[in-house]
Amino acid sequence: MISARTVLRSPTASKQAATEILKTINGSTLGCRSSFIVAQHIQLAPTSQRHFSSSPNSPKIKEFFEQKQTEKVRKTPAAWEHPVYTEEQMNAVVVAHRKAETTSDKVALLAVKFMRWGLDFATGYKHEKAVALNEKDPEAAQRKYGMTEEKYMIRNVFLESIAGVPGMVAGMIRHLHSMRRMKRDNGWIETLLEESYNERMHLLVFMKMQRPGRFMRFMVLAAQGVWCNAMFFAYLISPRIVHRLVGYLEEEAVYTYTHQIKDLDAGRLPKWEKMQAPEIAVDYWKMPEGHRTMRDLLLYIRADESKHREVNHTFGNLDQKNDPNPFVSEYRDPNEPHPTRGLDYAKPTGWERHEII
Ligand SMILES: [Fe+2]
Ligand SMILES: [Fe+2]
């Protein structure tokens, strides 16, 4: 961990420190503390902010995502094996919404709507106006509010950098809770950490395709500083609300990727039509030969988001302290539909507690 003091010491130290911080953010060791220190760092040393920015061709960003090859190491494969999805399963993913019934559901939904408004505002996307104009004149709506490949990519990078936080924070809090109370966790931690790992893979894949500019990287950094701390306290107060909130956030993610696939199919995203998925994606999802296009990639990512939607809505229905994680449990009757890591039995709005426990 690096301190704000080290950063202020000298320009070289400052440069090194900024690199270290960015490495921490992009590495798997991300925790709340690092984000908090990053947030502090920005306030304390405004001049060092320039070290966080770079042009799209900066060699700095390259070094974070390049495959590490050394004299002895050929390749470092993904730590978590991704479950195999069939094409049929991925095509069956649908946009869905779980009705907010309880007060905590309504709080979670409101928070997601607010965040959605913030993202629309920041990226200049006027959803209501776009929908209204689309009803009157679809062509004019496309001209005025239509999304381009670049605009979608900015949205994706921002969304993914946000999405990778809750699972890691929740996993860490449950890990500490288990040790503090000397109680079993019943399998939740691994699924939560795997979720944030999966979100980070989404982010890395998009980063491979379009390197974000100076402003975007600053936005991601600032949002992470706030978001990670907010998630930490929210999960301590009410893990149930946080899981519901993530469930609603994932509903938005499925919606966004469905739109991208539709726009791609309608010929509105020509740059993506011939684009091939990067190697990191082919390796991670084990994308079969002949199914490695941008469209295939979006199908895989959307399927992952639908899984997160299901997992978090289900977790939001369970007894947080005593219930086992139904996604890694063995069932008395394995032939009955039950939650799994893959897409065998999809439940877009989550499993109810009485169905599985
Ligand atoms: Fe994602
Ligand atoms: Fe997700």
TrEMBL record:
It is found in: Mitochondrion inner membrane. Binds 2 iron ions per subunit. The chain crosses the membrane at residues 152-173, 215-237. GO terms for molecular function: alternative oxidase activity; metal ion binding. Its cofactor is Fe cation. Its EC number is 1.-.-.-. Fe cation 1 binds at E160, E199, H202, E305. GO terms for cellular component: mitochondrial inner membrane; respiratory chain complex. Fe cation 2 binds at E199, E250, E305, H308. Gene3D superfamilies: Alternative oxidase. Belongs to the alternative oxidase family. This is Alternative oxidase. It comes from Ampelomyces quisqualis. The lineage of its organism: Eukaryota, Fungi, Dikarya, Ascomycota, Pezizomycotina.
